[in-house]
Every structure is written in C-alpha cells, then in structure tokens.
Fold:
Amino acid sequence: MLGFVDSTSRRRTNGELVPPLKMRRFIGQDQDFFVNRVPQLEKYCNLTPTDKVLDVGCGCGSMAISLIQYSNFKGNYEGFDIVSEFIDWLQSNVTVRYPNFHFQHADVRNSGYNPNGKVVASNYQFPYENGVFDIVFLGSVFTHMLPSDLEHYLSEIAVY
Structure:
C-alpha cells in the first residue's frame, strides 16, 4: 500500500495508542506504523465517516489507529490477526477507549507468526456475517500466504 509520512502523520509519537516497539518490529512496522493510511482509503475506497471497515491481518493496529487519529471516523471497524499478543494489546488499549473498534484473534497456522495455530488458512472462515462491510482492507497479508490460502481468503472477502 502506498503511504506518506509528514509532520501530521507522526502525532502518534507522543505515546498515545502506540503499541510497544517489539510488536511493531515483529512485523517490520517500526517506522511504517506511523504512516497515515486514511488518505488512501478515502481516495481508492471512498471511505466515509460511517463506513463499516474490515481489516484482515490488522497487525498491531496501524490502520485502526490511523482511522481514530486522522479522521472523523464514526463507523464500525473490525480487525483480526493471527498474533494473539497484538489482539490482546488492541483490545486493552483501543477498544476500551473506542467501542466501535473491535479486534479478534484468528488462530490460523502460519510458520512465522502463529506456528501452533489450530486452523489452516484455506479452511478459516471469517467470523462475520456476509454483506456487512463497505471496505475490506489487507496490508501485507497475501505476501505471507500460499496460492490456495490466498484464493480462499479472496472467496471470503468476496461476500462482503
């Protein structure tokens, strides 16, 4: 995904809603975490303040925190990730302050991020009803998947 960094996109450096450095580094997002992704959603997906957004592979919350801090977003946000530590941090630090932001752990097996996961990606069923999202966002998810898993995720996304 394209991004940019300017003086306004670094507001998160004051410590509010910034996950620990070890989390950001674990997924290679140390500096990239601070990129404001909202302009891309507005430009390419016509994001509105009341949209319902699904963030597949939400990581430690870069998109969610961008939506909170860089827009007047009042819609619903759902994010899931295979790293339970990320989800625990997001639930404890984001959802408690912003109840329209929800996060779920997806116990999907991945040799690098969740080697003991119970479900293979090609069998994982997204935990949401069909047709409920206006925007589905994935950042650096397909690059970590096998072709059959990728095809399955696309079929899950297609129902939204």
